[in-house]
Amino acid sequence: MQLTYIFVTILTLYTTLSRANILPGPPATDRRPIHGDSPLYQCDIYERQILNIENVDLSPNPPKRNSKLNITASGEAFKEIKKGAYIDIVVRLGYIKLLTQTFDLCDMLEDEDVEGLRCPVQPGKYNLAKSVDIPAEVPPGRYIFSARAYTVDDELITCITGEVLFPATY
């Protein structure tokens, strides 16, 4: 009886904290899995978004240290994305915030050379592929990330969240 009471109390506390956004990551009710082989979710799904991400595949999934990560994605832009668009990125290692930074989205597209995609991005369907190297020095842990992209007029382009576990190596 006492154990049941403790379990119910802990479950109630966890539910309350997660709905109040005190626990890291978006509430499960405000996101949906992105189709494909990846740990990614589209977040803020109840807000109008200019980009619908239809599919994302990662190879290998999950990503591994000291290897090449191949990313393929498809989606549809419903409105032109002009210069001045930006992306807010947050990365946590467990509960520790490692990075909170805003980047110019158009500069990122040019610098990362994502299949020649440049601003202004016209409405339409897109299929993209990109390879990145994962360094061997990535510390072990559960990385939780979110990226929210906005137009120059602060309209939500898209929101992506997910987590990746890099296990300890012995």
UniProtKB/TrEMBL annotation:
<comment type="similarity">
    <text>Belongs to the NPC2 family.</text>
</comment>
<dbReference type="InterPro" id="IPR036846">
    <property type="entry name" value="GM2-AP_sf"/>
</dbReference>
<comment type="function">
    <text>Catalyzes the intermembrane transfer of phosphatidylglycerol and phosphatidylinositol.</text>
</comment>
<keyword id="KW-0813">Transport</keyword>
<dbReference type="Pfam" id="PF02221">
    <property type="entry name" value="E1_DerP2_DerF2"/>
</dbReference>
<dbReference type="InterPro" id="IPR039670">
    <property type="entry name" value="NPC2-like"/>
</dbReference>
<feature type="signal peptide">
    <location>
        <begin position="1"/>
        <end position="20"/>
    </location>
</feature>
<dbReference type="InterPro" id="IPR033917">
    <property type="entry name" value="ML_PG-PI_TP"/>
</dbReference>
<keyword id="KW-0445">Lipid transport</keyword>
<dbReference type="GO" id="GO:0032934">
    <property type="term" value="F:sterol binding"/>
</dbReference>
<dbReference type="GO" id="GO:0001786">
    <property type="term" value="F:phosphatidylserine binding"/>
</dbReference>
<dbReference type="GO" id="GO:0031210">
    <property type="term" value="F:phosphatidylcholine binding"/>
</dbReference>
<dbReference type="GO" id="GO:0000328">
    <property type="term" value="C:fungal-type vacuole lumen"/>
</dbReference>
<dbReference type="InterPro" id="IPR014756">
    <property type="entry name" value="Ig_E-set"/>
</dbReference>
<protein>
    <recommendedName>
        <fullName>Phosphatidylglycerol/phosphatidylinositol transfer protein</fullName>
    </recommendedName>
</protein>
<dbReference type="InterPro" id="IPR003172">
    <property type="entry name" value="ML_dom"/>
</dbReference>
<dbReference type="GO" id="GO:0032366">
    <property type="term" value="P:intracellular sterol transport"/>
</dbReference>
<dbReference type="GO" id="GO:0035091">
    <property type="term" value="F:phosphatidylinositol binding"/>
</dbReference>
<keyword id="KW-0732">Signal</keyword>
<comment type="subunit">
    <text>Monomer.</text>
</comment>
<feature type="domain" description="MD-2-related lipid-recognition">
    <location>
        <begin position="40"/>
        <end position="164"/>
    </location>
</feature>
